[in-house]
Amino acid sequence: DLQICQHRAPTCCTKKMEESYQAAVRRERTQSIQALNFELKYMIVGHITAFQEAFESLLRFAENRTSSLFETAYRPMAKEAAEPVKELFTDISLYILGAETTVESAVLRFFDNLFPLVYSRLINPGITDLSEDYTECLRLTRQDINPFGHYSKNMVTELTKSLWASRMLNQALSLGIEVINTTEHAALTKECSRALVKMQYCPHCQGLTLIRPCVGYCLNVMRGCLASVSELDAQWREFISTLEYLTNEMAASHDLEITLSGIWNSINEAILHAQLNGPQLSATVDKVCGQPKQQEGNLSSANIVPVKEVTETQTFVMAHTSLSKKRREFINYMKRSRTFYASIAERLCDGDLVMRDSSTCWNGEDVV
Questions:
Q1: Is Magnesium a UniProt keyword of this protein (predicted)?
Q2: DSSP state, 267?
């Protein structure tokens, strides 16, 4: 009553043993593919972790640098500016990690919240009554009167260019893990598990426990079993090319690290621009929002404090170097895995499964 290991000679197998063999080959095949995938998955997961850690380090550095700008140059508004600064960097972090948001909305919201502070603490420091309605009017007016000139738009452009590739790379790496996990658990067809039993266990039914499959026979069986997985070859190669493109984009002129470290400078330039145009802005705001209560005298000119370039700290240099180095190592490894899905059958037939250094092997029917 054997269904798979039918042979003319006497056999030591039963139908129940055949069923056990089918369960065994399914388990072994999953384990073999997992073993092949392990290094590749380990590299991708490791890079996601390293990338996110280095990115968070750069982001913290950029946020600290921006906060210190307010504390040293714009002390009258430093305390109130802390929350908008924190929000801006949180939004940037969420964008990189794939949240449904845009760089433009994050940056413009930051400048919307910044304008009431700049107007009431630097341009007109005598304002005593900053009601919610007046603050909201200033926030909405920012979009029309453009107090920060081209600096706010430039910041949107620069950040969008440099963060886009990082966001895409993060999503692409997550997709890579998903693909690998899916192929690990690809179900074997009934025909495939029967073919694997015939190749690996039917010799045992003849007492031939030391004979292993012939190389060519193993390749034919594995290619048949893994046809659906090897179909991923073209898409996987394209995926690797996309990773290469994205890492090159990140290292190009709109470098992520340089852009993040320059946020404080863009904000500083924007605030200086608003202060230098203070009289015109005040005239426009008075027409739109009305005149708030004010103390005698205007001290705005005394608050213009140009900030010189802050020297690069060791933290930033280390994070920058670390991220660049990891990026190069990772993409070089991934380029070597281009043929991963095309060669999966060959790799599974390598090693202990087949008889390489012997004159005899199992061809599915007999020892040859």
A1: no
A2: H
Q: What is the pLDDT of residue 10?
A: 81
Residue 367 backbone phi and psi in degrees, to 5? -85, 130
Q: Which of 134, 138, 91, 145 is nearest to 113 (CA)?
A: 138
Mean pLDDT calculated for residue range 133-151: 91
Nearest Cα neighbor of 319 from 239, 258, 245 is 258
Q: How do residues 96-122 score in pLDDT, each as one tens digit?
A: 888 898 999 999 999 999 999 999 999
Looking up tokens 């203070």, which residue turns up? Answer: 278
* Six-digit token string for 319: 């994070």
Asked if residue 4 lies in contact with residue 190, where contact means CB atoms within 8 angstroms, the answer is no
Distance CA 43, CA 329 (A): 10
Instruction: Give the contacts of 308 (CB within 8 A, at least 6 positions apart).
Output: none
Alpha helices, DSSP H, located in 131-150 = 132-145
- Per-domain residue ranges of the chain: 15-292+323-349
What's the whole-model pTM score?
0.75
> Cα(2)–Cα(49) distance, rounded to whole angstroms?
51
Q: Which residue has the higher pLDDT, 311 or 9?
A: 9
